[in-house]
Amino acid sequence: MLIDDEGFELGIPSQEEMAAHQVVLLRHESEQACHQLAKAHEDMQKLVDINWALNQEINTLRHELRVARAHACMETNRQRGSGIPTWGGQVAIQDRGEPLLYPPL
């Protein structure tokens, strides 16, 4: 029976040499994992910053929507000629128009 002994011309490595080689491999693997972890941390920080900016934009748009709705409501009331009396103000009975009815659903 022939055994392929190619690559063993210099002999079989000792236990110390194999352990040293394993240490080198583990160090490289550890360094690679640390680099990947640092990159992942940077990526997460970028995503947090993007999320914060988008939330700020959403809040601004919501505020603008509330303002636009209020202006639209005031304009509608102004065009109808009937506003909601405030501070106890009353509209004279003879100046009141017909009550507005909602269309049937």
Short overview:
It is built from 1 helix and no strands. It is mainly alpha-helical and 105 residues long.
Order of helices and strands: H
Major sheet characteristics: none
User: Strand-residue fraction?
Assistant: under 5%
Mean pLDDT: 81
Structural class: mainly alpha
Low-confidence stretches: none
- Output the number of helix runs: 1
Short key terms for the protein model shown above:
single chain, 105 residues, mainly alpha, 1 helix, 63% helix, rod-shaped
Describe this entry's structure for a reader.
- The chain has one helix at residues 15-80.
- It starts with 14 loop residues before the first helix and ends in a 25-residue tail after the last helix.
- The radius of gyration is 39 Å and the shape is rod-shaped.
- The protein is built from 1 helix and no strands.
- The longest helix is centred in the middle third of the chain and has 66 residues, at 15-80.
- The protein has 105 residues and is mainly α.
- The mean pLDDT is 81.
- It has a domain at 15-79.
List the topology elements:
Elements (H helix, E strand, L loop, with lengths): L14 H66 L25
